């Protein structure tokens, strides 16, 4: 079984719709991250959380919000989706007490906003 | 802006050859990591080198770090078709946040 799972894996939606992407992990890691990947731009950090009560903005948080419902769950929401949010979204986890800052990635969610 | 810049953007070699990818960064770092991504999939951690290390090996991978030049290289020896993927460097500066480069697309031809 995968340690970091993301749902849905693919989503097509329309401009203005509210979308939630979910991430769950069984690794027991406190730290969780959301990234987006665009062609030719690598990964950019949207939000991150170091524990259930901690939420931090990343490089590109505008237009996004997150919720850390539990240690194992970290959700990303697009309140009103727009076409330039079409991208591949990744969730990741880490546990620096075990392996510095190595991150473990989910399989990704491909989001298309029409 | 991206902390890491990778060179080349794309690399095509024959099976058995060595592949070298380079990464440059702008600010002081705690460590530098290399990740691999198969097409459309999640990234997989390959190797981490600390700022006080100069070279590290893992199987067919060799990573070097030159903090004076703010650069790193990843060498894959005796490449295989299964090594075809995108390779990203990522730097950790503080707070366990990683900043990723734009990646090198490696194609290994059988």
Task: Describe the structure in your own words.
The complex is a heterodimer of chains A (114) and B (110). With 114 residues, chain A is mostly beta strands. Chain A has one helix at residues 96-99, and strands at residues 4-7, 10-13, 19-25, 31-38, 42-51, 54-57, 65-70, 73-78, 87-94, 103-105, 109-113. In chain A, a hairpin with a 2-residue loop joins β5 (42-51) and β6. The longest helix of chain A is centred in the last third of the chain and has 4 residues, at 96-99. Chain B has 110 residues and is mostly beta strands. Chain B is 0% helix and 56% strand. In chain B, the strands form 2 sheets. In chain B, strands 2, 4, 5, 9, 10 and 11 form a 6-stranded mixed sheet that branches. In chain B, strands 1-3-8-7-6 form a 5-stranded antiparallel sheet, with no helix packed on it. Chain B starts with a strand and ends with a strand. The mean pLDDT of chain B is 92. Chains A and B meet through β5, β9 and β10 of A and β5 and β10 of B.
Average residue-wise pLDDT of chain A: 93
SSE class of chain B: mainly beta
How many angstroms separate the termini of chain B? 36 Å
Mean pLDDT of chain B: 92
Head-to-tail CA distance between termini of chain A: 33 Å
Share in β-strands of chain B: over 45%
